[in-house]
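Good morning C.,

I know you're traveling, so I'll keep this short. The sequence:
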Amino acid sequence: MLSVCLGRLSEGAPQVDADQAALLYGDSLFETIRARGRELFWLDDHLDRIESGCRQSGIPFDRRQAEDDLARLASALPWPDARVRLTAGSGPLGSDLQPQGGLQFASAVPYTPPTPVDIRRGVACVFAPNRRVNSVSDLPQMKRGNYADCLYARRHAIANGAFEAVFVEPDGELLEGSISNIFLLLDGVLLTPPAGTLVLPGIARARVLQAARQLGLPTLEQPLYRDLLPQAREVFLTNSMFGLLPVTKIDALKLPAGPVARKIRQALGPPFADTQA
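The tokens, ready to paste straight into the viewer:
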């Protein structure tokens, strides 16, 4: 791991004081950014989202410092591909529970992207055993450091031989994956659950919607339900690290990996198009 905190580049994780609310209570936000070589992809989108989330949640954030730290980190990356994380969180809390300063750093680890074979074969998913958090809060719209619900769901997926776990409401409404957004192709229209309430406005999600429209494919953001899955011509996941991956199985339901996902992945451009299957 490499990390940068306040302009200082270090090998290994940054040193964090034990009284930080970001550490004690998960009062933090983060962004995960794909790097290839020393280039950071969709950086402004990530910075805009974390800046907005920090403003909403009262977490201190210095965008210029973040840009400087990320540039310093990117210039030192030794790996062909990397997962770069930007973290912003609260420092110690005062008696009024307001943060007394903030915690901010960037870090990176090597990343192995999906191979053309992975992309062609697609991935398996399961339904998450737990529910998403309170629908009346703004928290699901932010990429929070308190990631317990998503970690629990992803561990369940991995333990059951799957790549991802998809959150579903008791009435069957599909929400999102633990690390991804979900799309269905149905009757020639690309559908995805609306962002907000229980769905994170993913960076890759927005890019995929834009790419689909540029390809002339109708798109619609609307509530989706699990009983639509057998009717879907294609299902795929989106995420800033892997871009787009077809889903070829959800629980016992088998699904085809079709041409629309391949076309959209190509339209996303580097670093995703050059791994086209």
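Safe travels,
E.
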